[in-house]
Amino acid sequence: MTDINDLKNIASQVRRDIVRMVHGCQSGHPGGSLGCTDLLVALYFNQMRIKPEQFSMDGTGEDVFFLSNGHISPLFYSVLARRGFFSVAELATFRKLHSRLQGHPATMEGLPGIRIASGSLGQGLSVAIGAAWAKKLNKDNHLVYVLMGDGEQQEGQIWEAALHAGARGLDNLIGIIDYNGQQIDGPVDQVMSLGDLKAKYEAFGWSVIVFDGNNMEETIETLEIARQYTGKGAPIMLLMKTEMGMGVDFMMGTHKWHGSAPNDEQKDAALAQLDETLGDY
Amino acid sequence: MELKVINYQDTRSGFGAGLLEVGKKNEKVVALCADLIGSLKMDAFVKEFPERFFQMGISEAHMIGMAAGLTIGGYIPYTGTFANFSTGRVYDQIRQAVAYSEKNVKICASHAGLTLGEDGATHQILEDIGLMKMMPGMTVIVPCDYNQTKAATIAIADHEGPVYLRFGRPKVPNFTTEDRPFIIGKADVLCEGTDVSIFAAGHMVWKAYEAVNQLREEGISAELINIHTIKPLDVEAVMLSASKTKCVVTAEEHQMNGGLGDSIAQVLSRNLPLPVEMVAVKDVFGQSGTPEELMAVYGLDTSDIVAAAKRAVARK
What we know:
- The structure holds two protein chains of two kinds.
- Chain A is α/β, with parallel strands linked by helices.
- Chain A is built from ten helices and seven strands.
- In chain A, the strands form two sheets. In chain A, strands 1-2-3-7-6 form a five-stranded parallel sheet, sandwiched between helices. A two-stranded antiparallel sheet of chain A has the order 4-5.
- In chain A, a hairpin with a 2-residue loop joins β4 (182-183) and β5 (186-187).
- The mean pLDDT of chain A is 97.
- By secondary structure, chain B is of the alpha/beta class.
- In chain B, the strands form three sheets. A seven-stranded mixed sheet of chain B has the order 3-2-4-5-7-6-12, sandwiched between helices. In chain B, strands 9-11-10-13-14 form a five-stranded mixed sheet, sandwiched between helices.
- Chains A and B meet through α5 and α6 of A and α4 and α6 of B.
């Protein structure tokens, strides 16, 4: 398990990767990627029991993670590469022709670490539920994690899935919602308010924890608590408060950087705020 | 070959029987159903393997996603609901989480086509073959009777990759003998002939057989080929027969747009341009009625196949 200071250093490098990847192809989604960086670093470098060098689609005997909001693929790719699923040099191919690093995650190119395509929103929770049931059937006591967006909660399929996991008490599943309050057309509250999201999931039979996903200590602590909640007859949902664009001051506090790439000047300004801790790809 | 009616059974019961059998053979087979256990004849599997069955309630989109997830862990999920809710309702879920993600999910769809009958057009999907065959990597199977549906249900477990298995509601002639091999992608020549090739799928195969007999009485020798696998299409079988007879009829309980006829015509237009007549629904929705009434009204009867064959022969 990597300690807190190392995790913070990895997160800084991952944020650099995100900025450079999105700049390199002049497309992609930096805002949510930067916001969820601390969580994915905490999961892949501290919490999840995984075998990066022997990736298997089945994921039997290890914890598995699904990214439902597939547009934050730069983050996913950077964390997988930094964790050893594939070479960090490959990050330079992001969104380019014949790359395994498709705009949104895909399995077809055989990139280790990806178990489902995502991008069309609302589907990851169902997939995670299926994988969690497979673990139950296999008597595999490892966990299934799934990250979703908050805007994504507007999709109907999410609530079909939420109903199912709650009604069946599926307790080897930890859902996480990136609760940054922003979506493409503006603040979630204005586009289509989610109301009391905590109360909604609780009403669907989930155990819900709210935490600050841009505080590494609190993120680790919350993931530990969530793990202790597993096996107790209810699925777990973590409402993760984050700031879109976290780590780059001019990308924070706005939905403008949801899906825009920085120009050369903006890229340099962003990188000046992020320490190169592990070496750029 | 002379075909005999063994009995009258619904193809969905063939699915139910096949599911039970494949469940016994392969412990990785699991089943999911969106509140239609009785309609899909999944009762026996549910009773025999309760721990491998998932009652999903009326949540088809979630069912497809969950099925994709179950493959991650090595399971072979069979999803069961009506054809309409198995395809059109969940197209994006199948596209992203199953087909594009190369998941080993078997989408089993009952009550397809007009023969659903009285429920009317909301439930009578006639576009599903087209929807599913357009999806890269998807295998599309439309068996003709009870025995073949049972055989197909068992066979698809050993086929790695997504499959769409389409069957129906009413009791129809069951004529495929139990020992007749079912090979995915291998068309089945039922009658040999020299004047016209009839390629049929699903419930239309028996009607086409009746048409072959009528045509014979009128001096036309028709070849009948059961295209139970629409995709991948047995191009070799199509070419072999068409190059012999020099004209073709296709017959299916589906829209003309996007169905079996389209697939055959595509092969022939590229390799061997010949007259093709299509017996299919002509770009309209169905309506309430008995299966027999509807098949007659929408031009999917034995007499329609006979007429199409004569037109095809005349165009040679």
